[in-house]
Specification:
heterodimer, A: mainly alpha, Formate dehydrogenase/DMSO reductase fold, 10 helices, elongated, B: three-stranded mixed sheet, two-stranded antiparallel ribbon, about 20% strand
């Protein structure tokens, strides 16, 4: 496929936002249980604002993909059949949940105002937060399934697509959470940094697995099945037109093999060893700068990863467009 | 999305045995649809350096075999109006739909948001986004022609079918077992493209068929002639006078 930058930014930006939100709620839950010191409400409000910022940035990026963004509201209609439609519903739902979560933290509302008393600080925020985490995972599934549900894009059509989208989002979100914690809530640094490292190692395994799987794929569609002629030697002599068309532009990445492979190595380096080294040294030196560089370089690596994810998918329609004339 | 077999399913059957690759179906399709309900169909730089544009139908050419045993196959390709269209359920707005009454897969241009997801979800590459109107476009089976009662009955067919000089394109209801298309599919070995994805294309293709007879030598020369009836009659040499030299007609 020809990678669309709008979709690359959409999937990576909301991934960061989703991961950061999971991190905030995780931190607040653990401190409510008493395992870590309590943080100020402003910290959670600040985190919620950053999460909403990333989600909105992703949404804005997605609008550049649409021919008619003014009709985007219609995309909520077909949730029964379309994963894209489900994503369109779940993303604003998550934004709403994060907003409410931030608002409750800002207003310091508790269940005690409803007459329910318990030992947990911020219990109402936690309830909304945990509901938001459920929505977050629903959004990861929707985003991944948009790609994984297309059977004949065999590189995508596998549960690993959803798993990788989820783990990349969690890993980058927890890395950003580490950075924010270093700045606003140092008690959480080792929790978030440790989680980010765990997700990093998990996604290293699953992404290498999917790269291995993609390198071994035998495509079910062939020129023989595409035109229905059983002969081992078939050559296209003409695709029917000399100029370009959507078919020749949208479904192939149009870069050379060296550039294509180099993107793979760039993302494998930036997302994994570079970010890991910077994260660990940033945590050890308690350096906001190092953590910021770690997040920035990993995000660049994630952009490369998503580009490669799209470019590697082989669309069977390309079988019909092998020779201009 | 199970379709009951009794429902009507309009489709094309394309006979690869007689298609000569003249592109008349391509140009007539473009002409009809650019001025019809699907219009316009974009053309950018048609005579310039990097021309591009929308087509609902293309004729491609393939060479099968190795020289000298090759065959040239001209292969017209348009939307196959699948009975299980993978492009329809993925559409987030419902702009892409399959008509209940005749099985034609269409796009509602007023609902389409131009997200291209349906074109990714079509294994045949039958959908093309219009870069100017920013909506997805595709073959409509000339839905604005085939039901037009202003037209004479024999012209209520898709423009490509009307234009084909060799009758390589048949049009009809593939769910009606007695229709011309069903008979052709059944009796001439009609097949579907990329059956591996279970899209159940309504359009079918008829394969190339050999039309030569196999003749043995003993069918050309009479091997046995028991009554000696069919002996060679002696002919005059070229320098001897013939009948023409001795008679005037």
């Amino acid at each position: 496929m020809n990678p669309a930058f709008s979709v690359i930014f959409l999937t990576t930006l909301i991934g960061v936002g989703q991961g950061l939100f999971v991190a905030m709620v995780t931190g607040q839950s653990i401190s409510a249980l008493g395992f870590l010191p309590e943080q100020s409400n402003q910290y959670y409000v600040f985190g919620s604002i950053v999460v909403i910022g990333f989600l909105i940035a992703g949404l804005v990026a997605s609008f550049f993909h649409l021919g008619h963004p003014e009709r985007a509201w219609r995309a909520a209609a077909m949730w029964r059949t379309s994963w894209l439609s489900r994503e369109v519903i779940v993303l604003p739902l998550l934004m709403g949940a994060v907003f409410v979560y931030g608002l409750i933290n800002y207003s310091e509302w508790n269940l005690s105002e409803l007459g329910i008393t318990n030992g947990f600080k911020g219990d109402l925020a936690l309830i909304v937060g945990i509901a938001g985490v459920v929505i977050t995972f629903a959004l990861f599934i929707c985003t991944g399934m948009i790609y994984a549900c297309i059977k004949f894009l065999q590189e995508w059509s596998h549960p690993l697509t959803v798993i990788n989208f989820t783990l990349f989002g969690l890993c980058s979100g927890f890395l950003l959470a580490t950075l924010i914690a270093q700045y606003r809530a140092p008690d959480f640094v080792s929790l978030f940094g440790g989680c980010s490292l765990v997700f990093l190692l998990l996604v290293l395994i699953t992404r290498l697995w999917s790269l291995y799987r993609n390198s071994k794929i035998r495509h079910k569609s062939t020129l023989q099945s595409a035109i229905g002629i059983r002969h081992n030697k078939i050559q296209q002599k003409s695709q029917g037109f000399m100029g370009g068309s959507v078919n020749t532009r949208d479904f192939f990445h149009h870069v050379g093999p060296i550039f294509f492979k180099s993107i793979k190595w760039i993302f494998l380096l930036l997302v994994f060893p570079v970010a890991m080294a910077l994260l660990i040294s940033g945590m050890m030196q308690q350096s906001v700068v190092l953590l910021a560089i770690a997040f920035g370089l990993q995000y660049v690596g994630l952009l490369a990863e998503r580009w490669f994810f799209f470019a590697q998918a082989n669309h069977p329609q390309n079988l019909y467009y092998q020779t201009i004339s | 999305m199970d379709m009951k077999p009794s429902k009507k399913q309009l489709a094309l059957v394309i006979d690869l045995n007689v298609c000569v690759g003249c592109h008349a179906c391509v140009t007539s399709c473009k002409e009809w649809n650019t001025s019809g309900i699907s219009g316009y169909m974009s053309d950018d730089n048609p005579y310039g350096e990097d021309p591009t544009g929308n087509f609902f139908n293309r004729v491609q050419t393939f060479e099968v075999g190795e020289y000298p045993n090759t065959e040239t196959v001209h292969f017209p390709k348009s939307c196959l109006h699948c009975e299980e269209p993978p492009c329809v359920p993925v559409c987030p707005t419902g702009a892409s739909y399959k008509r209940e009454e005749d099985g034609i897969v269409l796009v509602d241009y007023d609902k389409c948001i131009g997200c291209r997801y349906c074109s990714w979800a079509c294994p045949y590459g039958a959908r093309e986004i219009d870069e100017h109107q920013k909506v997805m476009k595709k073959c409509t089976l000339c839905v604005d022609r085939i039901y037009d009662e202003e037209l004479p009955k024999e012209e209520r067919k898709p423009a490509c079918v009307m234009a084909c000089p060799t009758n390589a394109r048949l049009f009809g209801d593939v769910h009606d077992p007695d229709s011309n298309v069903s008979v052709a599919i059944r009796e001439e070995g009609g097949y579907a493209l990329m059956p591996e994805w279970n899209t159940k294309p309504a359009n079918h293709y008829l394969p190339r068929r050999r039309t030569q007879r196999s003749i043995n030598d003993d069918e050309l020369v009479r091997a046995d002639n028991p009554l000696n009836k069919e002996i060679e009659v002696s002919k005059p040499n070229f320098d001897e006078p013939s009948l023409d030299d001795s008679t005037s007609w």
